[in-house]
Amino acid sequence: MAKQIFINLAVKDLQKSFDFYTALGFTNNPQFSDDSGKCMVWSENIFVMILTHEKFTTFATKPLADTKSNLAGIFSLAVDSIDEVNTIMTNRLNAGGTEPTEMKDYGFMQQRTIEDFDGHTWEIFFMDITKFPKD
Fold it and tell me: Per the CB 3.0–4.6 Å rule, which of 19, 33, 51, 115 could disulfide with 37?
């Protein structure tokens, strides 16, 4: 089996979050989805499980963090171009996300940050490794 990553996120409104992640470009895998959680697919090896608070707590060993006021993690997604970064950001902003900072341009990498309805922080970036500074 290929190595895969599953990010599990607690969300207050499953349908609203489903619509938001769909606007980001994720697709849904209905095989692993029900009324308490949705499996959202970014690529063949990267998945985000959006789970109601009730469902999430069945897996949790600690209290849920308030991600609207505390940072619990930053999740980053690489894409193929700066145009794709901007398209994804436009779609997510139109779906109700917020952009807490301006775009960052490191020369070899451009990055934009967006938060979903629950405050989960995502960075969408394009990197051109050929422009990475050489010492």
Answer: 51
Do the beta carbons of residue 41 and residue 27 sit within 8 Å?
A: yes
Q: Where are the domains of the chain?
A: 5-59+74-131
Would you give the end-to-end CA distance of the chain in angstroms?
Answer: 39
- Biggest alpha carbon–alpha carbon distance for the chain: 53
Per residue in 6-21, pLDDT (tens digit) is 999 999 999 999 999 9
Q: What is the pTM of this model?
A: 0.84
Q: Give the tokens for residue 88.
A: 């994804």
Give yes or no for a contact between 73 and 124, defined as CB atoms under 8 angstroms apart.
no
* Distance, CA of 11 to CA of 56 (rounded, Å): 9
